[in-house]
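Entry 12.
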Amino acid sequence: MKIKSFGKINLNLRVLDELVNGLHKIESLIVPIDLYDVIEIKEIKNDKDIISFDSMNIPENNTVSKSLNLLREINDFSKYFEINITKNIPTESGLGGGSSNAGALLSKLSEVYNLSIPSNEDVAQKIGSDVPFFINGQPAFVTGIGDIIEPKKIDIELNMLLVVPNEIVSTAKAFLEFDRLKNTSTLVNTYKDIKIFNDFWNPSTTIEPNLIKIKDYLESSTDEEFFLSGSGSSMFCLGTLDNLQKKFDLIDENQFRIVKIVKKIDFSLETISD
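Predicted 3D structure (tokens):
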């Protein structure tokens, strides 16, 4: 079977000082977007999973292997799988690619094999704090350690010009830098009554100072304000499709991993073939 595994954008993101088992509490309005990986799943007669990500060098203990192991841990379930993931969502970009893969896989396998999905708290702690959002699959206000999901109906169309720099930012390092800086005051902007801000801007630009130059280049080229998604390095601006297409034409695509117009989708769980 084949499924789509969609990315996300954090329209706003507040990082709180309070820790739960070493994890920060957050508050974030997150929307799935129409940029996706493709996951091919095949049941195999084996005593271990075979997982490949195109030709990418992904650690053996990745979000996909963790999600499969957690499913087997809480269910009377001993099947193994060959899984190949065609990556379109760049890694370490703030778009949730690895978490999306895990969430889509947990949702699909639980549906096909009638399995219990682990609790959001277990998923957040053992796989990743963005994974419960992807299991939910809808725009949501996410709090706690990523385990409290409040679906949000966003009636307006949201189109975004997405730019993914070559620079990468590790989420773990961004949290460490957030703790070190302590004071990370964040400017708050508004788009159609939606507050746009991100507490990771100062920590992430301390880790990758070139992100400041990239933001300046994008804003001076397009005369639009760009915002960080997640811990970065992805940036986005919002607008109408016609306007964003004009802005797209002003950016030198060769400088970046991705320059693409994307849109909010209302549900991020989709099967290509069974």
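Annotation: The first strand starts at residue 2 and ends at 20. The mean pLDDT is 94.
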